[in-house]
Design a protein that fits this description.
This protein is mostly beta strands and 234 residues long. It has one domain (7-202): Sandwich (Immunoglobulin-like). The chain is built from 2 helices and 16 strands. The protein has helices spanning 2-21, 180-185, and strands at 24-33, 46-51, 67-69, 72-74, 77-81, 85-87, 96-100, 107-112, 119-121, 126-132, 139-145, 150-152, 158-165, 167-174, 188-192, 202-204. A hairpin with a 2-residue loop joins strand 3 and strand 4. It is globular. The N and C termini lie far apart (62 Å).
Length: 234
């Protein structure tokens, strides 16, 4: 116990000193698929670094948006610090009903019209799968993380996290369709420093297909009705 306490104290002193001295680096890595998959994009892999030593709670000053446009959520994957208030503006010329009842933050924003907005406060870490109760083709993911150090891979699989304070971290990742046990297997401890700011390629197994979801009542969606103008048919 004494050795553990000494190590913990040393880590705390190191982190505090790094914060005071402003020692930070740009952390980077790259996503690769373990098996060749020419049609599989490397975009959309979320990575975040959780400090090994507890730090003061963050106060989110931004209001990220998950916009509804052309019967899609934009962006499809959104990572936010815990405590963030996410806006859900409706930019379509018809109603939407955004909900999440499966994992992470559970909510139902009800029916709301074009040009209006709703907000959700993400108060704890977790992955929230988000849908529209009217349009089954709409889906998105909000990942609330207990750290300011996160990024989502681009089309080339590149991941860049700026201004990371040097120290010990646990790396977590998420990718749509990847089973929870496989995601857990990719979690790892690492040291970030000026000499160790670039991690080798993250070789990931190709994710499976995303299962079809039901509506907020746990039932299959109704067949689409013939399109009509304005608000007569959402």
């Amino acid at each position: 116990m004494k050795r553990y306490a000494l190590r913990l104290a040393a880590s705390s002193i190191w982190l505090c000193a790094s914060l005071l001295w402003g020692q930070d680096v740009t952390f980077s890595t790259r996503v690769e698929w373990a098996k060749r998959s020419p049609n599989r994009s490397a975009a959309g892999v979320a990575v975040w670094l959780v400090p090994a030593v507890d730090t003061p709670a963050m106060q989110s000053v931004t209001h990220p948006r998950l916009t509804q446009r052309s019967k899609t959520f934009q962006p499809h994957v959104l990572v936010v610090p815990v405590g963030s208030v996410v806006e859900f503006p409706n930019r379509d010329p018809f109603f939407h009903n955004v909900f999440s009842l499966f994992e992470g933050k559970r909510f139902d924003l009800g029916l709301y019209e074009a040009g209006t907005n709703r907000e959700v406060h993400f108060t704890k870490p977790g992955v929230s799968y988000i849908f529209c109760n009217i349009h089954p083709e709409m889906s998105a993911v909000v990942i609330a993380v207990p750290t300011p150090y996160y990024a989502i891979s681009d089309a080339q699989g590149q991941i860049i996290i700026p201004n990371v304070i040097v120290g010990k971290y646990t790396l977590h990742l998420w990718y749509e369709g990847m089973a929870p046990d496989k995601l857990d297997a990719e979690t790892r401890a690492l040291m970030v420093s000026e000499r160790n700011a670039t991690l080798g390629p993250l070789q990931l197994p190709v994710a499976g297909t995303v299962e079809a979801h039901k509506n907020k009542y746990g039932r299959e969606y109704d067949p689409p009705a013939p399109p009509t103008a304005g608000y007569e048919q959402p």
